[in-house]
Amino acid sequence: MSQSPAGPPPASEIEDVPLLRALGNRRSIRYFDESRTVEDWKLETMLQAARFASCQGNINCTEAIVVTRDDDVWDELEECVSGFNVQIINQASHLVIWLTNLNAWYGRAVDGISTVSLAGATTKYHGWNYEFSMTQTIPRLMSFPTERTENLLRFETGQAVANAIAAGVALDVGNILIAFGRKPGGVEKAFGLPPHYRFTWGHAIGYPLENPNAGGQRPRLKYEKLFHKGTFGTPLPSDPATVEMLREKGLIQEQAPLEGRFEEIIGIAERHGRDPGMLYFPAREIRRLMDDGDWDLGPRLRAHAEHVIATEDLPDYPDEMRETFQKLMAEHGIDATKFLPAEG
Ligand SMILES: Cc1cc2nc3c(=O)[nH]c(=O)nc-3n(C[C@H](O)[C@H](O)[C@H](O)COP(=O)(O)O)c2cc1C
User: Fold this and answer.
1) Domain containing 63: what range?
2) Which of 82, 51, 61, 28 is nearest to 154 (CA)?
C-alpha cells in the first residue's frame, strides 16, 4: 500500500522506545524549534494514546482542540496564557487544549458500562448485574453534584494527557503543560465552550530547540518522602538494586544540570534577542534548600548551587512577604519555620 506524503512512515521504520525509557526521557520542554511542525501522524498517535487511557465506566470524558498559530483564536489564547508561557506557545508547533466533558458522566454512564460489558470486561463474577446497575449504581453515580464529577473526571483527563505525552516522547516530540492563569474563563470564551465543558489544561508540543534531555532529569522529593508503607507516615523504602536497574533501563537518568546546560540556554536566549539571565533565589534560601533532607538533590545540582552562591548577584528575601507566606501556610496548617528563611 502506498503511503500518502503526509502520512506515517512504515511502522517498521518507527523506532520502538521501551516504555520505561520513554517515561525517563520525558522533560518539560520550554524551547521549541519554531521552524519545525509536528507531523499529523505523530499528533494523531498522541491523541490516540489519550483516547485509550482508562476512564471510569468508559465514559470518554476527555476531548481536545488542536490549534496552531494560524488559527483565528490564537491571539485570544495568547492573552489568556500565563506570561512565562507566551514565548513557549509561540515557538511550539501545536497547542492542545484538553477539555473535560462533565456531561459524559451524566449522559454516557449507561452506554459506557454497556460497552465494557459487551467487550467482556464487566461480569457477574464481580457482582455486576443489570437490575442493580440500573436501579442503584448508575443512578447513584448520576446524582453526584457537578463539583464531585468535575474532580473525578479531571483526574481522568490527567491520565489521558499523561498517555499522550508519553507517546509523544517516544516519537521525539517535546511537550510541556501550560498554565492559562492570566484570564480565568478566557479559554472557554475563546472557543465558545458549552457550560458543561471544562478547559482542563493547555499542552504545547513541538520539536525541542534545546537538547531533548533539557539538561538532565529534574529533581524530585525523595522516594521515601512520597510513598508510605502500610500506614501513613511510615516511609516505603527504596531499594538501591531497583534504582540501579531503573538507571540501566532509562527511567532514572542523570539529574540536572548536565554539563553545558547553562551555556546552551544562554546561547538560545542570545540568538533570540532575549535576556539570558536565570531566575535565582537568595543565597540563604538556596542554602536552606540544600539542607532540606526531603529533597533528592544530586551532586551536580549541589555543585551548581555553590557556584551560584559564590558568583551571582543574588536577590534578598523580600521580608515584606514573610507575613503573607506565614499566613498562607498557617491557613493550611503548615509550620512555616522550615519553609521561610530565619529572620535577620
Ligand atoms: C499540570 C502542570 C502544569 C504545568 N504548568 C507549567 C507552566 O505553566 N509553565 C511551565 O513552564 N511549566 C509548567 N509545568 C511544568 C512543571 O513546572 C515541570 O513539570 C517541572 O518543571 C518539572 O520538570 P519536568 O516536567 O521536566 O520533570 C507544568 C506541569 C504540570 C504537571
Assistant:
1) 17-206
2) 61
Atom of ligand 1 nearest to the CA of 30: 11
Interval between CA 63 and ligand 1 midpoint (Å): 21
Ligand 1 pocket: which of 26, 95, 177 to mutate (most atoms within 8 A of CB):
177
List the beta bridge partners of residue 201: 98
Q: List the CATH number of the domain containing 149.
A: 3.40.109.10
* Residues of the chain falling short of pLDDT 50: 1-4
In this structure, is residue 50 part of a structural domain? yes
Q: Determine the Cα–Cα distance for residues 124 and 127; give it in Å rounded to an integer.
A: 5
pTM surpassing 0.85? Answer: yes
Q: Are 250 and 227 in the same domain?
A: yes
Q: Is residue 173 part of a domain?
A: yes
Residue 334 maps to a domain? no
Ligand 1 atom closest to the Cα of residue 29 is 26
With respect to residue 319, please indicate whether it lies within any of the assigned structural domains: no
Please give the Cα distance from 302 to 257 (Å, whole number): 10
Same domain? For 105 and 149 the reply is yes
Q: From the CB of 255, is ligand 1 less than 6 Å away?
A: no
Q: What SS3 string covers 137-185?
A: HHHHHHCCCHHHHHHHHHHHHHHHHHHHHHHHHHCCCEEEEECCCCCCC
Q: What is the CA radius of gyration of the chain?
A: 23
- pLDDT of 3-59, one tens digit each? 445 799 999 999 999 999 999 999 999 999 999 999 999 999 999 999 999 999 999
Q: What's the gap in Å between 294 CA and the centre of ligand 1?
A: 20
Please work out whether the CB of residue 87 comes within 6 Å of at least one atom of ligand 1: no
Task: Count how many domains the chain has.
Answer: 2
The Cα–Cα gap between 80 and 23 comes to 30
